[in-house]
Amino acid sequence: MLTPGTTLLKVHSPGGSSEEGILLGRIIHARHLDLEIDRGCGSSCANYMFPAARHKTIPPGAVLAYHGTMYLTDLAGEKNLREQLTAGGIPPAEVEKQVPGLLANNKRIAKMESEFTAEIGVNPQFYRDFRTVAEQGDALEAQYKAQQPDFLWWPSARRLAQCYGIRDVNDQGRPAQLDSVGHFLEAKRNLLLVGDQALPACAG
Questions:
Q1: Residue 68 and residue 33 in contact, taking contact as beta carbons nearer than 8 Å
Q2: For residue 168, which of 36, 60, 5 has the smallest C-alpha distance?
Q3: Going by C-beta distance under 8 Å and a sequence separation of 6 or more, which residues neighbour residue 127?
Q4: H helices within the chain, ranges in order?
Q5: Half-sphere exposure (CA, 13 Å, Cβ side) for 28?
Q6: Which of 12, 142, 180, 202 has its CA 20 to 30 A from that of 186?
Q7: Which domain of life does the UniProt lineage start with (predicted)?
Q8: Closest of 107, 112, 108 to residue 48, by C-alpha
Q9: First-to-last C-alpha distance (Å) of the chain
């Protein structure tokens, strides 16, 4: 769909494949494309497409939703994989069959992710910090247990620039509650959005 005259992508995506997200991010970065969120950009869209864009706009009513990635953390390790598969009800013999292939794939994606951050000039800590947000969000999730919302992080434009090198973010849509009380329940989409309070400050 890209033409030589394309300068802006309007995206609405809940996410998808990490590998495809990285490939799309590389195209966006190489073409110096601007990006505007139409309704929502989550998961792989937020992880790879959004930071790769030149100018990023989040209009009122749109949502930016991160959940980090497992590839650059020990969440992609053998112990965690075994626990996930076992918790999913997979028989032990089948777990043993699946783990080697999953480990190899995770290492491959981790390498792609590391190369991608270097290519677009983003601090890879960007992909690790959601784990800290999530670990400190257990009590908050319990508070909204009845709604069973998706727990997601919406970092401020200031943190994106100062901590991760993701600049030129025009964030018109971020709820003020993310800075005042630290979270916001987006009832329409059943999203429990959290701010940056669980994370340490960074220089910049």
A1: no
A2: 36
A3: 47, 68, 69, 71, 72, 73, 113, 117
A4: 18-30, 44, 50-52, 78-87, 92-120, 125-135, 138-143, 157-164, 177-180
A5: 27
A6: 202
A7: Bacteria
A8: 112
A9: 37
Name which of 59-68, 130-139, 171-180 the model is least confident about.
130-139
Dig out the tokens for 176 from the structure.
């003020």
Report the length, in residues, of the chain: 204
Helix (H, G, I), strand (E, B) or coil at 89: coil
Is it the case that residue 74 has pLDDT exceeding 60? no
Q: Which of 42, 69, 22, 38 is nearest to 152 (CA)?
A: 42
Give the Cα separation of 204 and 182 in Å (integer): 22
Angle (CA) 172 177 180, round 5°: 115
Give the Cα separation of 54 and 33 in Å (integer): 6
C-alpha closest to that of 44 among 101, 156, 127: 127
Residue 123, classified by CB atoms within 10 Å of its CB into exposed (0-12), middle (13-18) or buried (19+), is middle
Query: Which pair of structure tokens corresponds to residue 6?
Result: 């394309």
